[in-house]
Amino acid sequence: MGAQGGCKNLKMTANKAKKHSYPHYYLWICVFWGVIALGIIVLYVSTLKIEYVWRWYRVPQYFLYKASIEIRSDIDGDVKSIKSEGGQIIVKIEGPSGSETYKVKGKGDVRVSEGDHVFTGDVIATYQKWKPGILLYGLYTTLKVSIIGIIFGIIIGLVAGLARISENPAFKWWSIIYIEIIRGSPLLVQIFIWYFVLGTLINTILAREGLQQLPPLYYGIASLAFFAGAYVAEIVRAGIQSIHRGQMEAARSLGMSYAQAMRYVILPQAFRRILPPLAGQFISLIKDSSLLGIIAIRELTKATREVVTTSLQPFELWFVCALLYLILTFGLSMLMQYLERRMIVS
Amino acid sequence: MIRVEHVSKTFYVPQEVKALDDVSCEIDKGEVVVIIGPSGSGKSTLLRCLNRLEFADSGHIYIDGIDVLSPRTDINKLRAEVGMVFQSFNLFPHKTVLENITLAQLVVRKRKKEEAVEKAMFLLEKVGIPEKADAYPDQLSGGQQQRVAIARALAMDPKIMLFDEPTSALDPEMIGEVLDVMKTLAREGMTMVVVTHEMGFAREVADRVIFMDHGKIVEEGTPEHFFTNPIHERTKLFLSQIL
């Protein structure tokens, strides 16, 4: 590990030296930025040509917006008192069938005055509150779906991967069939099968038994988890097989069972090796979750599509959508790199 | 202690080779037996058959009266009694030296942590590198790694130790330190089966030398007999080539 670190440093200094010896180094840096700037300018100018009006200020409201919330009376009666207490206004209503107290937070706008008669459902006051917008909800759903998908993907992949290298013919062939079917068909089709075939079956049976039906989210997560699981299985298999067979022999020769040898000797070593490909797989999973919109799961892409139809600002919103995915995937890859580095140190 | 009866083993990959061809031999308690022979003669295969790392095709192997090849035998229990040292050490690279030696004690022998550590330190002392307890295997020289591997096997309190060319992957100047550890073990009365090319070790330590060629035991006897007046032509040829 010390040697590895040293090697990296060496490479870096070598790169540095190379950079500066490259002919017209700074000119090429300018070309690099110039081309990027040109691309942006060309894009912007062409949007002007089709008379697209950029309205970035419209974007933030889909993340957070100030909602106006109305407080309505639950009873008929008279407004007994309106008092201001500790930053909130307390409205007391007394009627023939009892009394109610309403608290209005912050800079609320009270619509009644003392002595007024109110009926059930009348607006007593309104106040403003920050609420998360559709995009933030979409981001949250994407994150949730991805994290649960990744967790189940790891579990399924580990089981299928171990089954794949098992000498038991049943386990081995189940695993092979599973992996081949999943890897050989489009995720979109799998999502349809999960939702429209399995989902219909399961939900109909549940309904017949008088149980609650499962929402599309479950089927969406299942499709992602099983999809990722097949790839994880292959990664796990390759990782385990990359460990020298002497390791297994040494562990077995000490009297460990196959399971013990796997758990204490083989898997910990394999895990370090499979972290990088695993990270790539999970990044794919986050991006693939954008397909779940087709079964009415309002994840980030679906949310963006909805917002586009109401705001009519597709250019800004699709860029924002892409950027949000980039933040998620970049965050995950940073996390995996951190894990990797920690494992090398330990 | 070990009885091998008419054992045969054929490999089909990469090509069909009869690695063991009707081999029979017997090894007594406390005996040090050195198996020599040209490469591909089946000596490593014989050794690996003894703890079922290779499954013999036919014949019988008994260790302490237990039928090694029977499917009813608890092979893990048996292997815990038979230590093995490999040519390529096969230390667990993700664990420290100390953890390498304590792991099997904890999960197989179910010893308490303190007991396992104490045992490990005692053995590290014995193989001469107690100061490396917290090092990782890749921070050790080849000779040190092999000594740790011996300590790891000894930690299980085995009745028999198998050595599969323990010095073949070592730089010449490190061979001595490993052989010294093995000599100490032999002197203490450990039953040992050693596959090696170290003729000096065979001559000095072995109670008996077995010479194998083409999957068969060609000749066996005391080192004295073996190195001074071998009977078979094949043995003479082999000895003339390596001595």
Please tell me about this protein's structure:
The complex is a heterodimer of chains A (346) and B (243). Chain A has 346 residues and is α+β, with helices and mostly antiparallel strands. Chain A has three domains: 2-49; 67-132, Beta Barrel (OB fold (Dihydrolipoamide Acetyltransferase, E2P)), CATH 2.40.50; 134-345, Orthogonal Bundle (MetI-like fold), CATH 1.10.3720. Helix content of chain A is 65%, strand content 14%. Chain A is built from ten helices and seven strands. Chain A has helices at 2-21, 25-49, 134-164, 169-184, 187-208, 216-241, 245-253, 258-288, 300-311, 314-345; strands at residues 64-72, 77-85, 88-95, 98-105, 109-110, 117-118, 123-132. Chain A has a four-stranded antiparallel β-sheet, with no helix packed on it. A three-stranded antiparallel β-sheet of chain A has the order 1-7-5. In chain A, strand 3 (88-95) and strand 4 (98-105) form a beta hairpin. In chain A, helix 6 packs across helix 8 and helix 7 (245-253) runs antiparallel to helix 8 (258-288). Residues 1-9 of chain A have low confidence and may be disordered. With 243 residues, chain B is of the alpha/beta class. Chain B is 38% helix and 25% strand. Chain B has helices spanning 43-50, 75-81, 97-107, 113-127, 142-154, 172-187, 199-205, 223-228, 233-242; strands at residues 2-11, 17-27, 32-36, 58-63, 66-67, 82-85, 160-164, 191-195, 208-213, 216-221. A six-stranded mixed β-sheet of chain B has the order 6-7-8-3-9-10, with helices on both faces. Chain B has a four-stranded antiparallel β-sheet with strand order 2-1-4-5, with helices on one face. In chain B, a hairpin with a 5-residue loop joins strand 1 and strand 2 (17-27). In chain B, helix 5 (142-154) runs parallel beside helix 6 (172-187). Chain B is globular and about 55 Å long. The model of chain B has no long low-confidence stretch (mean pLDDT 93). Classes of the chains: A alpha+beta (346), B alpha/beta (243). The interface between A and B is medium-sized, with 19 and 29 residues.
